[in-house]
Amino acid sequence: MELAKQQVDIGLFTNDLDRMLPFWQNEVGLRFDHVLPLRRGQKQYRHDAAGSVVKINHHIEPIPSAPPSGYRELIVAQTSRSARLTMADPDGNAVSVVPPGYHGVWQIGIRMSVRDLEAHRHFYADIVGLQEQAYPSVRRSARATRLYSWSKNPVSSSTRASTVRVGVTSPFRSSRWTRFMPE
Fold first, then answer.
1. Is the Cβ–Cβ distance between 77 and 71 less than 8 Å?
2. Tens-place pLDDT, residues 126-148
3. Which helix (H) or strand (E) holds 35?
4. Which has the closest alpha carbon to 103: 128, 127, 83?
5. Residues of the domain holding 35
6. What's the pTM value of the predicted model, to 2 decimals?
7. Cα(179)–Cα(173) distance, rounded to whole angstroms?
8. pLDDT (tens digit per residue) in 65-76
9. Is residue 4 part of a domain?
């Protein structure tokens, strides 16, 4: 697969723009880039994350309730951080702001929980073309089994790629993606 760029972007959906923008711009420290009108009643507020884009998608109409996705946490690397800071945005999404390079995250990382790790390994490695990397501090528990990190091969030591971190839930919890391996 030929990707449009070497970075991962992520989009969040909200009805609470008045609280989300200050959080992502001031507390997380992302630089606001521009607003992209999507369609009537929807605008995308794009924020730069060292080449990745965090897209805050604002909807005027209420966003329908949906079951939780496999995304568990957005990890944002910031040069101003010397240690990991965990928090939640106004919509309750888990966010960690980390120093660049923290567990392989140089721009943004997305922590996910998946039902079938082998299917996701196949997708990210064989379809998307990311390289699997060892994760240094995996702790096993009854609720989760493995954690992997993938990233594109950097062109040079000054060019880093985003990281996708994936864990798999235990089979007895396979009906929902509700658990993720703790760090």
1. no
2. 887 777 665 555 444 433 334 44
3. strand 31-39
4. 83
5. 10-173
6. 0.73
7. 8
8. 776 677 888 999
9. no
